[in-house]
Queue: 3 jobs
Job 1
Amino acid sequence: MKQQAIFLMGPTAVGKTDLAVELAQRLPVDIISVDSAMVYRGMDIGTGKPSAEILAVAPHQLINICDPSQPYSVAQFCIDADLEMQKSWQQHKIPLLVGGTMLYFKALQFGLAKLPAAAPELRQQLLQEAQLVGWPAMHAKLATLDPVAAQRLNANDSQRVQRALEINLLMGQTLSASFAQQLEKKLNYKLHSFALVPEDRAVLHTRIEQRFMHMLDLGLIAEVEALYSRGDLTAQLPSIRSVGYRQVWSYLADQLDYAAMCAQAIAATRQLAKRQYTWLRSWPEIINIDNFNSVALDTIIQSVLDFRNDYA
């Protein structure tokens, strides 16, 4: 039988983990996390990481695999995910890739663009310039060099604005052009791609707010405080820049009061969901499912069973 894999994508707080766990009870699948924050140990509450009880029933691969001090790249994810998918098939199971880090999904399915390594001197120069003029001005600078990339990036997303500027200056071409030159490395799998997307955005916005407040009740501030007190982590690290963590970090650094921290974290999460929707709208051969219900479960199961029958 030809190898197959399931992609279960969707915006944050939509219920992807719940659906994946339910699928694991109905199909012979191995769950592989596609989440750039769940890879970090000690970052459990703010990432919505499955509980120990859930993991005992439905293990997830590629969570808790590195320390928050260690950057984790999309290239490393592709290597790790490919290995986990091979292991899954060796055990006669179907890889079920679940998460909301859309760049990881894209790189895994279509390959990585040939992008230059970071140049420390140029990076420092850009950081110094940003300190003088601010990141919105740096975003405006990017817009003159690469309007397409600038349109996709938030003006205050310093990390991505900085990287886009680096690529433009190092390669002499736009980030958009660089990504157009993809490596021909496509997955040799029959992919079942599903997007868990509620039609009513207002419902998702409410869930996002409720989930963040619940995270606070569960002890999110104490979790971030443990990271803050280590002394070897900074606000510039990719782990700490994760949505929710960077706002609580600023609160602990007395840069935000409690109300502003909550408001900014919820707003940032909604912006993340908006970007995830943008990715999903242009995803090829994807089946949209309105939230987690029995119809969603049956749709995915039937897709897999139909494929198995065709290739039996």
Job 2
Amino acid sequence: MSQALTYADLARPSAKRLALAYDLGLIAVGSLLVALSATVSVRLPFTPVPWTLQPLAVLLVGALLGARRGMAALLAYLAEGVSGLPVFAEGSFGIAPLLGPTGGYLVGFVAAAGVTGALAERGWDRRFLSTWAAMALGSLTLFAFGLAWLSRFTGWSGVLAAGFWPFVPGDLVKQVLAALLLPAAWKLAGRARPGSGGP
């Protein structure tokens, strides 16, 4: 299937230097969006994993920027946190969050943005059901990374209760929200390429 435009491609300059500056700016803005989403955080008493708006921001960054820029934005976000900026959940920073119980989720951000970005590049963000499917696959990718690492701290017997089931309802709401917003925005833009819709 040929590659479809992402939102970020709509205004991308044709000149190489301007295009590079444009891409770098979007990557920086994407990392900032994820950092801002981390400020909305709720500590749950029965799990070391806090509830945040980060998963929604990660999936949207991937869908809006595409796979490469989306993953680069999340790598930049991780680099900012490791370098000492308090951009992780609850204002944390440094290498400790990557090595702690939530480290798998942080690494999974990069992969999740890549999944939703790659699917958006195939037109999956143009219709409600395909957008929802893209968001769900991105979310499952994030959970796969997060749970695999979290199991080191909780054991496999307790990992779903600590890192999956409490977050499913909120994730479903976020997925539906994205599935409503992205196709509606494409319709407003009037730029959906005919025949580029997903499954």
Job 3
Amino acid sequence: MQSCSRRSLLARGAVLALTAAGAGALAGAAAADVPPDSDLAYARLLVAADLLAADFYGRALAAKVFGAPEQKTLRHAAFNEQEHYAAVAGVLTAAGQTPATAADIDFTYPAKAFAARGSVAKLGADLEQLQLGAYLGAADAVQTEPLRGIVSRIAANEAQHLAVFTGLHDDRPLGVSLPLPLAIDAASNALAAYTS
């Protein structure tokens, strides 16, 4: 019986796995690096949603209807949205596409949306519900990494944002146990109410 170290066992396993996989599997892995059109469509939608959120946070901060602790939270959420945008836009850029920027979209809001604490909190809750639904829908639908992992992690953060606004708006920071995802068409239609 031949003795085998853990290192040599792992090395032999790797050689066997590569041999068994063959050249066809390696070519398939290279092709998997390019997301399918459906994944890129979700990425474009999420970029627009992140740009809307960033615009909202900029306006909410400028309205100064919240106290210092809430303003600090809004600044942190705005930073999160910038990072969300960068992560999803990076997937588009890696696929050879040019992601939208804020200059590409006109944002619209209900009249007096930023006039008072209550109206900003309500709008924030509505927009974060849209964000969360869009990211959960993407997490259900996208097929490729790294996009699948990115959207799942961002959905967790969007749920935190939603909790902040539902707490501010109706003193109910905890929502439903199983938030509903939005399919790409539903998310796009909801987003269209705020963008053109």
